[in-house]
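Session log. Operator J.P. requested a structure for one protein chain; no other inputs attached. Running the standard single-chain path with token output.
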Amino acid sequence: MSLGYFTLAFLLSVLATPLVFLVMRRLGVVDRPKADKRKIHAKPTPLGGGWAIWLSFFSVVGLAYAGDNYFGVDVAPKHLLGLFIGSTILMAGGFLDDKYTLRARHQILFPVFAALSILALGVGPHAISNPWGGVIDLSAYKIPVYGLGNIILLADFIVFFWLMGMMFTTKFLDGLDGLVTGVVAIGALIIFFLSRDPRWLQPEVALVALIFAGACLGFLVWNWHPAKIFLGEGGSLFTGFVLGTLAIISGGKIATTLLVMGLPALDVVRVIARRAQKKTSVFAGDNEHLHFKLLRSGLSQRQAVILLYSLSLIFGLSALVLQTTYKLIAFGILLLVMLLAAAWFARAERGPQKARTTYETANSVREKTG
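Structure written below.
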């Protein structure tokens, strides 16, 4: 039955995407490459493709919820409601940004409200696994709120920043055709297989993750290079939001998801640190992300995307067989890979710059000595 829902989500997404394409083009929600030198696509391309994933995902989840009574234990109605409210906030805000190009201080409001919608419905872990054995209780510090139960401070703090981190990871990753959609689909499939493991069987979580993967892969049919339509601002945030929330409601599979998304997440940290060092806005776009560096190294878009898919898949599969302690070791290896890649790219890019500077200096001296 799970495979049937996956197939339905996939097909619905494939069919919905051309309709979204037509609507967005009619509304003028189009990414024009000449308006931004960082753009690498050749012709105007409609934005807002995330609506196709949103529509197919929630339609099929709603069908599963209504038809087979799948949910109620691991995935409670509040989880689905939080997902729906937060996702809709992100998609609506993303549409406004794609259409009107909002300022950064306005853009950030939508991810904040989306994360708060999850917290308001009490979605969050009460404990997390201790890498060195046992669990860490997160419910020690809580504030009773009339009508809402208890606000668990430490858990809510972790959930809020985790979701914000996941949303901005996928937002910043959305630079090459099909990159975000494919990496997020890999993450959802890893959560699916992990939730089917007899050691912590969670069929409800597995079903939602599989439906989400199907919706993403259906959109990827149209988003693969050369892309006919882009996710848009809302779609890039929404996909990270859903994946991050699935990691939480599946029993705190944060380490697992972090292995899949680790390379993009570390790249985001590196880029933000670099922007802070240069005293530029952390929201200011540039071409310093890893995927752009791969293009400058000589890879094609498809080659760069497949390479990043492969790394996400390798580290994601390791999460299926490793215990929590070894997942931390794997993440350390991932960090080392990121540092080595950053050093290699810095050296590779310094070479042409140094040669260019030497050439310009030589020309200047030649002109002076005439």
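Operator note: Residues 122 and 149 are 8 Å apart (CA to CA).
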